[in-house]
Amino acid sequence: MTDPMIVGWSHTRFGKSDAPDTCALMAEAIPAALDHAGISAADVDGIFTGVFNNGFSAQDFQGALAGMAVPDLAQVPATRYENACATGSAALYGAMDFIAAGRGRIALVIGAEKMTATPTAEVGDILLGASFCAEEAGIDAGFAGLFGQITASYFQRYGDRSRELAMIAAKNHANGMSNPYAHMQKDLGVDFCDTISDRNPRVAGPLRRSDCSLISDGAAVLVLADADMATTMRRAVAFRARSHANDPMALSRRDVLEFRAARSAWAQALDQAGLTLDDLSLVETHDCFTIAEMLEYEAMGLAEPGQGHRVIRDGITHRDGRLPVNLSGGLKSKGHPIGATGVSQHVMAAMQLCDDAGQMQLPNARLAGVFNMGGAAVTSYVSIMERVK
Ligand SMILES: CC(=O)SCCNC(=O)CCNC(=O)[C@H](O)C(C)(C)COP(=O)(O)OP(=O)(O)OC[C@H]1O[C@@H](n2cnc3c(N)ncnc32)[C@H](O)[C@@H]1OP(=O)(O)O
């Protein structure tokens, strides 16, 4: 087994892009990543592309688009991965398995999505394709509707935590102010996020617009190399652990408030790494909705079930807290171009570890955790990363 390491990356600005499609986004991101890693297209042994589905355009078979975006890559074996909102991590872990199996030494992981050309209601319908359609397809407001139901159940069981959800939104928007790649660089503040208004209407159940992640365009790329090669390159970020866990897709078949797959992915990853949460310098987590970040606090072990509100109240996950969460602004402010998100989260963590995060930089960042999920905590990925060169 040869351990794959991250040796380079690139990231487009997330938001409403002039790029007409994912191919154009890839054309922007891939050359920058090759350049960052100090390699050429001829060095690449495999391409692993994450794009949610072809619902946002008529173009399917998006694995082959990298070779259209960068003609020198056209002969490199390429495959597209899809695993709902964890599509980016699925592509990354596929590339890592390819290198670990010794089938290639350098792999390109590309996450891309073009969402803003599609009207919001249609985006909601397309995203709901990643719910258990036989039971959940009719839910209003897409995934916001689904997470609206989850929020209502949480409030019913544990009490109304609207204020704390607003605090999570405000934290991530404040962090996003320092991220030049972020979609929405606006410091909204807790009171704005906690007040229903024309500018911040209710979207679904207790969720307000400010509790939702953004509909974004964007691409992110990682370059992976095997351990021997990585140590000869400019930088190397290793995986102390990586874990992937699943739970039944249908909400009717589980207690969704447990976030069981997330909990088990975190436990497995920490165990594999021989670490506790206290050892981590920072976490990038999947805040598709503010309630998700609160449930993830509980799943990772920062709080007991129903106590996630204390984590944000006590400032634990703020920039100057014990475990800063989403220094990049998270999906909430950085944006959530579905296929790109998991790749982007790993890029943000790698930047921190390599002291390359500009205004976002946390001093002495040594170990970073990344959590990316698909569906309502259906498929869950946790990586624990450390710079080794
Ligand atoms: C497991 C998973 O990851 S599931 C998650 C999958 N992703 C999603 O479900 C996407 C969720 N988000 C959404 O559906 C949309 O962003 C919504 C419904 C919240 C808002 O969409 P719309 O109502 O169409 O907003 P619209 O694009 O018209 O923007 C109106 C204003 O609100 C702002 N805005 C839009 N979305 C958001 C948001 N999520 N948070 C804060 N502000 C927002 C815009 O910047 C704009 O501001 P401006 O008037 O100052 O320019």
TrEMBL record:
Residues 6-184 form the Thiolase N-terminal domain. Pfam families: Thiolase_C_1 (PF22691), Thiolase_N (PF00108). This is Acetyl-CoA C-acetyltransferase. Keywords: Transferase. It comes from Paracoccus homiensis. Residues 247-387 form the Thiolase C-terminal domain. GO terms for molecular function: acetyl-CoA C-acyltransferase activity. It comes from the Bacteria.
